[in-house]
Design a protein that fits this description.
globular, 2 domains, about 15% strand, 12 strands, alpha/beta, Spore Coat Polysaccharide Biosynthesis Protein SpsA, Chain A, seven-stranded mixed sheet, single chain, about 375 residues, three-stranded mixed sheet
């Protein structure tokens, strides 16, 4: 019975941490947009040949076109730049990485500097990852949500068409729990979609202030909060979607290994403890589930309920963030075991090896982003 109470308590904590994630909707869009600010869309892109064309096609079909679209090619060794150049957008080739900079912050800063030279302080910068897909009303909705003066971020709805991509399940939920995305006081933004005014961006020194951060979106959100700029975080719903790791298992492992341990050190301690409790309950429920399957535990009412609480709680949260399949929920111990294994790997890479790999780069984690000198 104690195991059941542990599971139920963790489920309550998990739902509280996750909160009520608002979905971005067309109702947030100003209509008409005659008084709307100018909008510059900035897309940092490294080896995004499989995705960049889809996003730029979506942008070309938007209900309201942005004033400018800037693709910053971050030293790609595939066809990213040539594909982007076939669209009516500006393509910037990023110079060599300066000392102390990560690739994505450098690309974002280059694009923002180029855009801000042509924009007013109240005009908007919208940063989009290359794997994001946009409904025709998506940009209008983001701009409408930013009309209240807050920085707006969206975690797109995660499309997972293949079985192996279902392994991202627990990571998706933990990421949203960690930053309080569904609460009134989120502590970070999500890199796939960030919208701010040029004035707000300058106030925090833009991506220059997070130039050495691996989880640059988490750190950028903290900079906005330190500057007394409120954050509003939405789920993408039908308007913004993405497919994070379409190339398979190795990309899933590499991507989440990069993000998890470095991101975990940047979230509030209370959320870290709560998320750890929730994950521990899933591990315990998974163990009970497997014990029942192999006959090592008796199918009593408490054991069955403890197993069900873990699985159903996870399933309820996953329905809000991505296209996770019912059969994946029946095999949730596999999802939990994969999360634990990758998280342990992430801890080893972050604190022992002090380096992670991503898109053909080795990211040295020895640099301190608070002491690395800024590039003039």
């Amino acid at each position: 019975m104690s195991a059941l109470w542990f599971q139920m308590g963790a489920a309550v904590v998990g739902f509280a941490l996750f909160g009520r994630l608002r979905r971005l909707g067309t109702a947030t869009a100003p209509s008409p947009m005659t008084d709307a600010p100018e909008v510059a869309v900035i897309i940092p892109a490294r080896n995004e040949a499989a995705s960049i064309g889809n996003l730029l096609s979506d942008i070309a079909s938007l209900d309201v076109a942005p004033a400018m679209v800037i693709v910053v090619d971050d030293h790609s060794d595939d066809a990213t730049a040539s594909i982007a150049s076939s669209f009516d957008v500006e393509v910037i080739t990023a110079p060599a990485l300066p000392v102390g900079w990560r690739g994505k912050p450098w690309a974002c800063q280059l694009g923002a500097d180029h855009a801000m030279s042509q924009l007013a302080p109240d005009d908007l910068l919208v940063f989009l990852d290359a794997d994001v897909r946009l409904h025709p009303a998506a940009l209008q909705a983001v701009v409408g949500a930013a009309a209240e003066g807050d920085v707006v971020s969206v975690q797109p709805f995660h499309e997972l068409p293949t079985a192996v991509e279902q392994l991202s399940a627990v990571f998706n939920v933990v990421s949203l729990m960690g930053v309080g995305a569904g609460t009134a006081s989120p502590t970070a933004v999500f890199g796939p979609v960030v919208c701010c005014t040029t004035g707000q961006y300058r106030a925090v020194d833009g991506h220059r202030s997070v130039r050495a951060a691996v989880a640059e979106d988490v750190e950028l959100g903290r900079r906005f909060l330190q500057a007394d700029v409120a954050l509003r975080v939405f789920g993408g719903g039908e308007l913004l979607r993405f497919r994070m790791y379409p190339t398979g298992l190795s990309a899933i492992v590499e991507g989440w290994s990069k993000n998890m341990a470095t991101g975990a050190t940047s979230i509030p301690l209370s959320r870290t403890v709560g998320a750890a409790w929730w994950i521990s309950s899933l591990v315990a429920a998974s163990w009970t589930y497997l014990s029942l399957v192999v006959g090592a535990a008796s199918p009593t009412a408490p054991t069955l309920l403890a197993t069900a609480v873990g699985g159903l709680g996870l399933a309820a949260l996953l329905r809000r963030v991505g296209s996770f399949r019912w059969w994946a929920m029946l095999a949730y111990p596999v999802l939990v075991a994969f999360f634990v294994a990758v998280f342990v790997r992430s801890l080893w890479l972050t604190y022992v090896r002090r380096a992670v790999n991503w898109r053909g780069r080795t990211l040295d984690l020895g640099d301190d982003p608070t002491t690395t000198p800024a590039v003039p």
